[in-house]
Amino acid sequence: MKTLFERSVAGRHCSILPECDVPVRTPEHTRTQPLHLPELSETDISRHYTELAKQTFGVNDGFYPLGSCTMKYNPKVNEQAASLEGFAEVHPLQDHVQGCLEVLATAEKYLCEITGMNAMTFQPAAGAHGELTGLMLIKRYHEKHGNTARTKIIVPDSAHGTNPASSAMCGFTVVNIPSAEDGCVDLDRLREACGEDTAGLMLTNPNTLGIFDKHIREITDIVHEAGGLCYYDGANLNAVMGIARPGDMGFDCIHLNLHKSFSTPHGGGGPGSGPVGCKSFLEAYLPGEKVVFENGEYRWQERGEESIGAVRGFHGNFLVVVKALTYLLTLGREGVPAVAENAVLNANYLKHLLEGTYDVTNKGVCMHEFVLTLEGMKKETGVSAMDIAKALQDYGMHPPTMYFPLNVHEALMVEPTETESKETLDAAAAAFLEIYEKAKADPEAMHHTPLHSPITRPDEVKAARHPVLRYRFDD
User: Residue 7: inside a domain, yes or no?
Assistant: First the structure.
C-alpha cells in the first residue's frame, strides 16, 4: 500500500480549509524550506484512508480473542456520550465545569464500590502508568513509616510483563516466584520470599492462566504479616467484576484498565485510562486533586503534602472516563456481574470445544481466558503456536496472544469475552479444529500461512531492529 507521500502529485489539491479571514503576520523565525506536505485531491485522501481501514482488523471486523486484553465490543452509546459538546469541547483549564466534575465523582464512587477501594485517581493514562502510580503509593507509604529497607516487590512468574518493569522503574528489586503445579501461587515459595525487605506483592487474580487463586486470602495475609502491601493488577477484572472485589481479597491498591474492562477502545482504537484505587490509609498519597461536593457544588480539593504529586498533566483522559461511566450506567447493578458471568461462560464453552484435540494447561474450570500449549505438536510436526496463530487469520479472526504467559511453552492465550455469540464461538472452534487437522496432514504448508491477508509474514526481527519510523524525502 502506498503512503500519502507516494500518492502525491505536484499541483494537486482540494478545498478543505477556508481562506484565512485575519491579517497574515510573518513571524521573525520562519522556516527556510517549505513543509513537505502531500498534494492530493479529496478523492485520493478518501480512498487512501478507506484502503487503510480495510487492512486494519478490529472488533467490528470479527472475532478478536486476544488473551488478557479484553478486546470486547464497544457500545456506540459510549461514543455518543463522549461526543456531547459539553464534554468534548471542554478545555482542560475549564476544570470547574460541574457536569465534568460530577462524571469524575460518580465514576470514582462506582469503581470504588466494584473494587472494594475507598478512593481513586483518574490521572494515570494507561495500565502500566497505573502500575507505576500504585507502586509509588507503596513506596511513599513505607518511606513515611521509616521502612526504607523494604526494597523488594514479589512478582509471580505468571504476572503480566509490565509488572516487573514497573517495579524496576519505581526503584524496587523484583523477586520472581514460580507457580505451583496447579498454576496458582506457590505458598511455600511466597513465605520464603517474604521478609523484612518486602515492600509488596503484585498479583492479578484470576491470573494469566485464567485461574482464580483459591488461596488468595492466605496469599495477601502472608504478605501483610511480613509488613508488605498487596497490589492488584486489574487487567483481568473482566472475569470477576461485580462478583468478587479485590479489596475483599486483601489488596491495598489497584489499577483498572477502563479501556479493557469497561469497554472503551483499546490499543490503536484510542487513548487508555488506568485509574488507581486504594484503601483509606493510602489515600493521602494519591496524585493530583480530589473532587469533592460541598455547598451544593463540585470542586477540586488539594491532596496535601503527603501526595506523590502529579503523574500526568491535568486530570487524566477524561473522555475515556465518560465512556466507562456510560457503560456502567447502561449495565446497572445487575448488568456488571452479568458481564463477568458471560465472559466466564464463553471461555469455558470454547475451551470445552477445543480440549481433547488441543492441549489445555488448565484441566478444570477456567475464568475469562484459557491457555493452549502447542509444545507437543511442535515436537511432533514442527508446527508452532506462531503457525497456528497465523493460520487463524485466513478464517477471519484475530490470533490469540502468542507465547504468553512465559511459563507455558508454545502458548496461545484465548479470551473470548462476554460480547461474543454462541455462533461466533462455534465458528471459531471449527476453525481451530480444522487448522489442527491441516497441521497434522501437511505441516510444511502451515509455515506459509496466512495466504489471504493483506500481508503474509513480515520479517519481525528486522522490523524490531531496523524500524522505519518516518518517510525520507529525496531532497
Answer: no
Distance of CA 147 to the CA centre of its chain: 32
Beta-bridged to residue 276, according to DSSP, are 121, 255
Are 87 and 208 in the same domain?
yes
Counting Cβ atoms within 10 Å, is residue 107 exposed (0-12), middle (13-18) or buried (19+)? buried
Name the packing angle between helices 127-144 and 162-169 (round to 10°).
40
Q: Are residues 196 and 226 in the same domain?
A: yes
The closest alpha carbon to 327, from 259, 274, 382, belongs to 259
Amino acid at 446: M
- Strand pairing partners for 121? 276
Q: From 298, 331, 364, give the residue that closes a domain.
A: 331
Report whether 123 contacts 303 (CB < 8 A). no
Domain that holds residue 277: 76-331
Cβ atoms of 208 and 405 closer than 8 Å: yes
What pLDDT score does 17 carry?
Answer: 76
* Structural domains in the chain (count): 2
Half-sphere exposure in the Cβ direction for 192 (13 Å, CA): 9
Helix (H), strand (E) counts: the chain: 16, 13
The predicted pLDDT at position 268 comes to 60
Same domain for 349 and 322: no
347 CB-side CA count, 13 A: 34
Is position 178 within any domain?
A: yes
The predicted structure's pLDDT at residue 267: 61
> Are 320 and 362 in the same domain?
no
CA distance 278 to 137: 9
- Give the residue ranges of the chain where pLDDT is below 50: none
DSSP 68: T
> Looking at the whole model, is its pTM more than 0.85?
yes
pLDDT of residue 466: 94
Task: Give the CATH number of the domain where residue 406 resides.
Answer: 3.90.1150.10
**Angle at which helices 385-392 and 422-441 pack, to 10 degrees?**
130
- Do 416 and 346 touch, CB atoms closer than 8 A? yes
- Beta carbons of 137 and 286 less than 8 angstroms apart: yes
* Domain edge (last residue) among 331, 360, 386: 331
Residue 66 DSSP one-character state: B
